[in-house]
C-alpha cells in the first residue's frame, strides 16, 4: 500500500505551550528540561530566567530539574500539557531539615490561568524554612506564611520595595499590566532573605498552593 510522504498537519488541540521560569536562588547551577527541550540549550538557568514560550505535544510529558546542592539533586516528575493552551510553570527550592541541618529541595508549581490584566498586581510568596516571616511591602508590613501567596494592589510605573529586617531585598518596577510574583527564600549565609521577581501577563500564583 502506498503511503504519503507528507506528514499530516497537527490540529491545534494536538499541541500546547509552556513557559517555565526559575525561582531557584542557589549558587549551584540549575538546569531544566521539559519534554525534549533543554532550557538555554542545557546551560544553567539563573534566578528569574525564563524559557520563553515552548511548543510541545499535548498530553503528559516530563519536567526534569537538576541542582547538585539539593537533596535529591534531581527532580523528575510528570506534567500535563493542555491542548491549544499554555501552561505556566515555576521551578523553585525550599529548605527541609535533614539530620538537624537545613538543605534545599527542588519543587515546581503550575500556575493558575487568569485573564490578562491591564493593571499590575503583585504577589509575594515565602519559600523560607521559617513558618512565618515579617516583611514590608511598600508601606504595608505583613506576616507571610510559608508557601502561601499574599496579593497586593499596585499601579503602573510604581516601584514597590520589599524590606526584611530593615534591608531592601527587592525593588519591583510595575512597567506594564499583568501579575508580578516575588519569591522570597532563605539566605543561609546571614539568616536573611533573598528575592527573585518574575512577571506573567495571564498567570497568577494560587494562594492555596
Describe the model.
- This protein has 209 residues and is mainly β.
- It has two domains: 11-110, Immunoglobulin-like (Sandwich); 112-209, Immunoglobulin-like, CATH 2.60.40.
- It is 0% helix and 58% strand.
- The chain is built from no helices and 18 strands.
- It has strands at residues 15-23, 31-34, 37-38, 50-57, 59-66, 74-81, 86-98, 101-110, 112-113, 120-126, 132-137, 140-145, 149-153, 159-164, 167-173, 178-187, 192-200, 203-204.
- It has a four-stranded mixed sheet with strand order 4-1-7-8, with no helix packed on it. It has a four-stranded antiparallel sheet with strand order 3-2-5-6, with no helix packed on it.
- The radius of gyration is 19 Å and the shape is globular.
Secondary structure topology:
Elements: E1 15-23, E2 31-34, E3 37-38, E4 50-57, E5 59-66, E6 74-81, E7 86-98, E8 101-110, E9 112-113, E10 120-126, E11 132-137, E12 140-145, E13 149-153, E14 159-164, E15 167-173, E16 178-187, E17 192-200, E18 203-204
Parallel strand pairs: 1-7, 10-16
Antiparallel strand pairs: 1-4, 2-3, 2-5, 5-6, 7-8, 9-18, 10-13, 11-12, 11-14, 14-15, 16-17
How would you summarize this macromolecular structure in one to three sentences?
The chain has 209 residues and is mainly beta.
Helix content: under 10%
Low-confidence stretches: 1-6
Radius of gyration computed on alpha carbons: 19 Å
Distance between the termini: 54 Å
Main CATH class of the largest domain: Mainly Beta
Tell me, briefly, the overall form. globular
Q: How many DSSP H or I helices? A: 0
Main sheet properties: 4 strands, mixed
Overall number of domains = 2
Q: What are the secondary-structure elements, in order, as H or E?
A: EEEEEEEEEEEEEEEEEE
* Major sheet strand order: 4-1-7-8
Q: Please provide the count of β strands.
A: 18
| Structural class based on helices, strands and sheet pairing | mainly beta
Amino acid at each position: 500500500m502506498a503511503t504519503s510522504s507528507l506528514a499530516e498537519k497537527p490540529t491545534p488541540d494536538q499541541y500546547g505551550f509552556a513557559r517555565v521560569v526559575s525561582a531557584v536562588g542557589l549558587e549551584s547551577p540549575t538546569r531544566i528540561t521539559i519534554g525534549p527541550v533543554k532550557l538555554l540549550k542545557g546551560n544553567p538557568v539563573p534566578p528569574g530566567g525564563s524559557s520563553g514560550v515552548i511548543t510541545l505535544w499535548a498530553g503528559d510529558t516530563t519536567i526534569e530539574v537538576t541542582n547538585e546542592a539539593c537533596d535529591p539533586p534531581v527532580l523528575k516528575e510528570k506534567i500535563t500539557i493542555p491542548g491549544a493552551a499554555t501552561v505556566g510553570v515555576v521551578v523553585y527550592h525550599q529548605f527541609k531539615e535533614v539530620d538537624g541541618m537545613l538543605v534545599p529541595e527542588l519543587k515546581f508549581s503550575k500556575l493558575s490561568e487568569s485573564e490578562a490584566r491591564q493593571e499590575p498586581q503583585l504577589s509575594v510568596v515565602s519559600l523560607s524554612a521559617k513558618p512565618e516571616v515579617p516583611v514590608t511591602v511598600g508601606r504595608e508590613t505583613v506576616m507571610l506564611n510559608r508557601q502561601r501567596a499574599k496579593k497586593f494592589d499596585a499601579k503602573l510605573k510604581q516601584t514597590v520595595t520589599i524590606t526584611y529586617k530593615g534591608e531592601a531585598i527587592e525593588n519591583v518596577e510595575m512597567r506594564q499590566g499583568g501579575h508580578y510574583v516575588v519569591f522570597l527564600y532563605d539566605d543561609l549565609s546571614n539568616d536573611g532573605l533573598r528575592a527573585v521577581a518574575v512577571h506573567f501577563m495571564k498567570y497568577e500564583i494560587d494562594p492555596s498552593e
